[in-house]
């Protein structure tokens, strides 16, 4: 029988805290395991010598010395930059992939809010009058638009899967080529990053879903923003390092980009004095695009699937 040690607290967000119901779900899905949930770091350190599997947000490097039986580290985080450890030989690390089905709904909401001027209408509702003429220039259909998804991994493909029924043209951008997924059609395409500059002028909605690893810093810089059409909007739910934030502010102020919807930033929490907070047509979320009440339920289900593939 494998022993699973769980240390997944969060100081602010209850949906990111491992609760009793998550323990019960894990026990039902993996009845041949012993699950120990720790509420604090001290209790977790005490059980380290006896566990084979650790479910954690973070794992200190020095904890490996105490973890003589440890085989598998699993974090709910998608980004590999979140768990900054060097595991010893024999210890595998798994970053989860369930986030895309939640994040795709956030991106769809952002794009629809932009196309149908929902946010602008809200901004105008306190004014007297009937602002149809003010909204008219921005009211466009999503159907027929070109959506470029930069970062076409598990999250990017979830976004494409949810958007495709709206009748959009999907271009997925990856470091290396993959076959066209079955939920796309002949009008869609997969390209490598080397072709990004050719795709941007045909892009109405640029969605960034990239990890924060090497090679992605300022990938969308001033030069590439200038390749986008003036009516284009940018959406970032990956990592904040991918966008030159100063260049983005400049483009929005000049009107050379229509809008930006950002969930992630180079520095988090976003500084109160950040120019992004006052930038026109820039809409900010505090890194919550994957937040939902069932966040850790989906995590537990993925842990169970991966466990069966690994141990059964």
CATH superfamily of the largest domain: NAD(P)-binding Rossmann-like Domain
| Succession of helices and strands | EHEHEEEHHHEHEEHEHEHEEH
Work out the oligomeric state of the chains in this entry. single chain
Q: Count the DSSP helices.
A: 10
Strand content of the residues, in percent? 15-25%
How would you describe what is shown here?
With 312 residues, the chain is α/β, with parallel strands linked by helices. It has 2 domains: 2-98 and 292-311, NAD(P)-binding Rossmann-like Domain (Rossmann fold, 3-Layer(aba) Sandwich); 100-284, Rossmann fold (3-Layer(aba) Sandwich), CATH 3.40.50.720. The chain is 29% helix and 17% strand. The protein is built from 10 helices and 12 strands. It has helices spanning 20-29, 41-47, 100-115, 118-124, 132-135, 154-163, 196-199, 222-227, 245-254, 295-311, and strands spanning 2-7, 33-37, 53-56, 72-75, 92-95, 146-150, 169-174, 189-192, 205-208, 233-236, 259-262, 282-284. The protein has a 7-stranded parallel β-sheet, with helices on both faces. A 5-stranded parallel β-sheet has the order 2-1-3-4-5, with helices on both faces. Helix 1 runs parallel beside helix 10 (295-311) and helix 3 (100-115) packs across helix 6.
């Amino acid at each position: 029988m494998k022993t699973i040690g769980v240390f997944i607290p969060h100081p602010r967000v209850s949906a990111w805290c491992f609760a009793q119901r998550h323990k019960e779900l894990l026990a039902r899905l993996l009845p041949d395991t012993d699950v120990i949930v720790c509420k604090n770091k001290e209790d977790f350190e005490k059980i380290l010598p006896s566990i084979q599997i650790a479910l954690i947000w973070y794992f200190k490097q020095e904890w490996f010395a105490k973890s003589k039986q440890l085989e598998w580290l699993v974090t709910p985080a998608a980004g590999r930059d979140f768990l900054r450890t060097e595991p010893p030989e024999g210890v595998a690390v798994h970053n989860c992939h369930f986030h895309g089905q939640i994040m795709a709904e956030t991106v769809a909401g952002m794009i629809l809010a932009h196309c149908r001027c929902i946010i602008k209408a809200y901004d105008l509702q306190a004014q007297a009058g009937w602002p149809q003429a003010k909204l008219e220039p921005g009211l466009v259909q999503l159907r027929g638009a070109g959506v470029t998804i930069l970062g076409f991994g598990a999250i990017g493909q979830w976004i494409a899967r949810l958007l495709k029924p709206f009748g959009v043209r999907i271009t997925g951008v990856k470091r290396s080529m993959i076959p066209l997924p079955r939920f796309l059609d002949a009008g869609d395409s997969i390209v490598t990053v080397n072709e990004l500059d050719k795709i941007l002028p045909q892009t109405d909605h640029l969605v960034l879903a990239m990890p924060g690893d090497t090679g992605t810093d300022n990938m969308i810089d001033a030069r590439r923003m200038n390749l986008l059409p003036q009516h284009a909007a940018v959406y970032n739910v990956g990592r904040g390092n991918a966008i030159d934030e100063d260049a983005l502010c400049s483009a929005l102020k000049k009107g050379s980009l229509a809008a930006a919807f950002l969930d992630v930033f180079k520095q988090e929490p976003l500084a109160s004095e950040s120019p992004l907070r006052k930038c026109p047509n820039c809409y900010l979320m505090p890194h919550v695009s994957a937040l939902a009440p069932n966040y850790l339920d989906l995590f537990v289900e993925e842990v169970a699937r991966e466990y069966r593939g690994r141990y059964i």
